[in-house]
Structures are given as C-alpha cells and as structure tokens.
Design a protein that fits this description.
With about 325 residues, this protein is of the alpha/beta class. Helices cover about 25% and strands about 30% of the residues. Strands 1, 2, 3, 4, 5, 6 and 19 form a 7-stranded mixed sheet that branches.
Length: about 325
C-alpha cells in the first residue's frame, strides 16, 4: 500500500533548479521533501563536459556536477526527505495540493515545480522503431557502442556540437546534419569542431533535414533532403544521435496550470513572487519555465528565486 506524505513544501525535480531550491528551503527550516523524478540529477547528468560553471575552472561532467549538488543537498535535507519517485498525476484544485506518484502519494501547502525537460525527437518515418536500436539522445551514455564505427549527429546547437566532439574521439566518422546554413552553438565550440573537421573525422551536412531512417532490426542508413527540397542523399551509418532541443516536462500540469508553448507561465512582471505560477502557492523554476536561456547556471538561479518566493509566500499567508 502506498504511503502518504505531507509537508508544507515539496520540490519536484532534482536538477540544478530543484537542488538549489532544496538547499534554500532546508536552510529556512521548512523541512521540505525533494522528489527526484525518473532521472536523479536531471538531464544535466548526460552532459559530457561543462566548462562554464563558475568555480569549476577545469572541465567537469554533468554527472559529476550533479553528484556534488546532491551531496550539498544532503548536508541540509534529512535523508528520508529525498525520495526517489515519479509523479504521474496531480490535483491542484484545492489545498493541500496533492501529488500521486508511482511509489507514494503526497500533499503540501506550497510547491516548486522543477521537472526540467526531455529530449525532442524528429518524428520522421522509422524513428520510433530504431530508438534504442541505433538511435540515441546521449553520446556519453551510448557512444562507446560505436567505437571505430560511423555515426551521425542531428542538430546545430551546443548539445549537438558537444556530442559530435565527444564522438569524434570514439567513432571512425561523425556526420553532422543541420537544417540551417550556420551552427547555433557557442563560437568556442564551433572552432573546436572546425579543427576536428580538418582531421577528416567530422563531416558537415548543412542545409539538410532528415527524411527517414532505414534498416531491418537495427539502423543502417539515414535519408536526407536539402532544405530547399532539391537534393537528396543517403548516408550509411551505424548509429544516430539526436540533439535538436528539449520539451518541457509539463504534460501532467497542462489542465491545471497556465502554459505557453508547453512552458509554465510565471509572474515575471510582479514585484514579488516572480516565479509563482497561475496558482497561488505553486512556483516554477528551471527549464520547465525557461524557453529562452536554458542553462544549468540560470536553472540554479531560478531555483534560488523560487525558494525565496515560496518562503515569502508562506510568511505572508501564515501557513
């Protein structure tokens, strides 16, 4: 039988936003519960290398960074208050707010939603068929499978370029497919990419989009068409890594909290409670409410803001 937990405050998600919120709320003696979600540490744990986190002058992986954050949380949060569970249903119509998880059920008077985002897919023929059978969204997780093999990376932002650079040290060839003329990644990453291209391990396919994937039980080729629809090409590959952005994890909140393009709307223009959602007492932080910046450091700052707003809310409502 599922246990039922009640706290004044609960945090959903254990990425940079959730961990920062937990530290602030715990230090305010609110004794919050942190529900980690399916991926403890969030999507950042799949990042190969982080070079722009202040205070870390050497390269650090996303997994290492999140291990440090979670360790920091445990300094202030009671061990029984960090719960590995996934929430699949909520009821925000009345107080206390209710959350229904795979393992337990929860209730609270205030909540910070920091559920982050999930990988976006192309939605082209045979894509679903080959997910896990040649198609991946995490080079650090699955790159070793393709040692001395031919792979493709789809995308043109930071994630795609970082994946490509990582794979260039493992794979025989890396083919980068980008629908635009220019990459959108940081200049320092593009410079590194250009150097690797000179070594003839990385190949560019700009102004091309994926039409479909081919193969039997596993993927063996990728079918492309130029952005203007005039040129087609087929590349024989052993694996594909998709890095075309994220989708905010807000589906279970969509009928109860105001969203815009899937992102939670917060009161950014208000003098107080800038992170509050359309429901009093519920706040949002990180990628789940940020469609513009989507950086680890901004997510952590967002988590700090949400925690401070929540503390003020409880003080003002005498909850």
């Amino acid at each position: 039988m599922k246990k039922f937990f009640y706290r004044k405050s609960i945090i959903l998600g254990s990425g940079p936003a959730g961990c920062t919120s937990a530290i602030y709320l715990a230090r305010a003696n609110l004794n919050p519960i942190l529900i980690t979600g399916n991926y403890k540490g969030g999507q950042l744990t799949s990042s190969y290398s982080i070079e722009n986190w202040p205070g870390e002058s050497f390269k650090i992986s996303g997994k290492e960074l999140m291990q440090k954050m979670l360790k920091h949380v445990k300094m202030f949060l009671k061990s029984e208050n960090m719960i590995d569970d996934h929430i699949n249903k909520v009821d925000f119509l009345n107080k206390p707010f209710k959350l229904f998880g795979l393992n337990n059920n929860y209730a609270c008077d205030s909540l910070i939603i920091s559920t982050g985002s999930s990988n976006r897919y192309l939605e082209v023929p045979n894509e679903k068929k080959f997910i896990g059978n040649g198609i991946s969204t995490c080079a650090t997780c699955d790159g070793f499978i393709y040692r001395n093999k031919i792979v493709a990376v789809i995308g043109g932002g930071n994630s795609a370029i970082e994946e490509s650079l990582f794979l260039s040290k493992i794979a025989k060839e890396v083919h980068i497919i980008h629908r635009r003329k220019e990459f959108r990644a940081e200049k320092v990453l593009i410079k590194r990419l250009e150097r690797e291209k000179e070594n003839k391990k990385i190949f560019f396919h700009k102004n091309f989009i994926v039409r479909s994937f081919s193969g039997k039980s596993v993927i063996h080729s990728i079918n492309l068409i130029s952005s203007d629809g005039k040129t087609e090409k087929k590349i024989s590959i052993d694996g594909v890594f998709i890095a075309i952005g994220k989708i905010p994890n807000t589906k279970i909140f969509s009928k109860q909290i105001s969203l815009k393009h899937g992102y939670i709307i917060t009161n950014k223009e208000n003098d107080l409670n800038k992170t509050q959602t359309s429901i009093d007492g519920i706040f949002a932080a990180g990628d789940v409410a940020d469609s513009e910046y989507r950086q680890a450091i901004t997510a952590a700052g967002f988590g700090c803001m949400a925690a401070i707003d929540l503390i003020r809310y409880l003080e003002n409502t005498n909850t």
